[in-house]
Amino acid sequence: MNVLITGGMGNLGSRLLIPLVRRKYQVVLFDGRPDPLISSPEFEKTLYFEGDVTNLESIIQAVHQHEIDVIFHLASLLSAQSERESNLAWEINMTGTRNVLEAARLGGVSRVTFSSSLATYGPGIKEPLEIDAPMWPASLYGVTKVASECLGNYYHLRFGMDFRSIRFPTLVAPRGASGAASAFCSAIFVEAFEKGAFNFEVGPDATFPAIYIGDAIRAFLLLFDAPNERLSRRVYNVHGLGLSARELANAVLRILPETNITYTPNPTLSVIVDSWPQFIDDSMARIDWDWEADYDLDRMAIEIITQLRNRSYNENP
Ligand SMILES: NC(=O)c1ccc[n+]([C@@H]2O[C@H](COP(=O)([O-])OP(=O)(O)OC[C@H]3O[C@@H](n4cnc5c(N)ncnc54)[C@H](O)[C@@H]3O)[C@@H](O)[C@H]2O)c1
């Protein structure tokens, strides 16, 4: 099977390629940069296509040249950067998704699996967040994710495309992406380990949902592998961990007790974080494709600090 990963050099993509290569799939990484965030022996077996999702022709060319069967569409500007660069966010997240779906349709690609986000929901949602709760996002990033899901669902209804999507909470990883409002969830591990100190830009009682990156990749593969007849919908929520900043700090302190943790809330960031639910009802994913998170907070913290100590950031889901 020939698999195209848009945004394949990023946090999620450079880890997702590992199990796909192990399945003997030919993986093509479609990205604007040639180096993966996480290097691995499996990366050496992938192909690189230098391209831009805002350019329809470049995706059509990649699909055609590599006879692509399925696409994982991950290329995106993340939440904080989308607020700073709204025109670019619109181009990459909106036009980019439309281009990927259109190139898939024209190229006879059988399946597009998309990484959405819980940022699709807005503030004031009751806990636990139910999948069909109203979606009135408080960020441009969330707006683009809602619209991308709707477009994917439209391609499914109109053209029979096998569009599948997961709304991920914050991905926590030893080397995380820096453009997300939730980047502090990963940064605390790196800074505690390297500098012995971490300053939260939210207060200790700020709460948020998160998922260990290894669990996120496992979720993606479970959804990807699920027989179509088991899917009752095209878009799913997954839950990993419901955390507060204090709980996250305490998990780090249990392993690195000398860490100096401080809190200097940034009002802009706090508004975004306060709009997030802490607990997610992911029963549809559990029913339809047997989803269950493997990692609790302490297991995740031990895993991440061990990877930082070993300078090995690869996932082996
Ligand atoms: N990081 C999180 O916490 C999180 C949470 C929920 C959902 N997601 C989603 O998961 C996906 C992957 O996120 P990530 O954490 O790996 O982000 P990332 O920033 O590490 O990776 C994104 C990749 O997309 C590439 N890219 C950006 N613009 C592009 C363009 N115009 N054309 C081609 N490639 C382009 C970047 O070079 C980068 O390699 C995104 O869709 C994101 O919205 C992430």
UniProtKB/TrEMBL annotation:
Q: List the top taxonomic levels of the source.
A: Bacteria, Pseudomonadati, Verrucomicrobiota, Opitutia, Puniceicoccales
- What is the official name of this protein in its record? Putative epimerase/dehydratase
What Pfam families does the database record attribute to this sequence?
Epimerase (PF01370)
The NAD-dependent epimerase/dehydratase domain extends over 3-238
Name the family the entry cites. Belongs to the NAD(P)-dependent epimerase/dehydratase family.
Q: Which InterPro entries match?
A: Epimerase_deHydtase, NAD(P)-bd_dom_sf, NAD(P)_epim/dehydratase
Which SUPFAM superfamilies does this chain map to?
Answer: NAD(P)-binding Rossmann-fold domains
Which residue spans traverse the membrane? none
Q: Name one GO biological process term.
A: L-threonine catabolic process
One GO MF annotation is: L-threonine 3-dehydrogenase activity
Q: Which domain of life is it from?
A: Bacteria
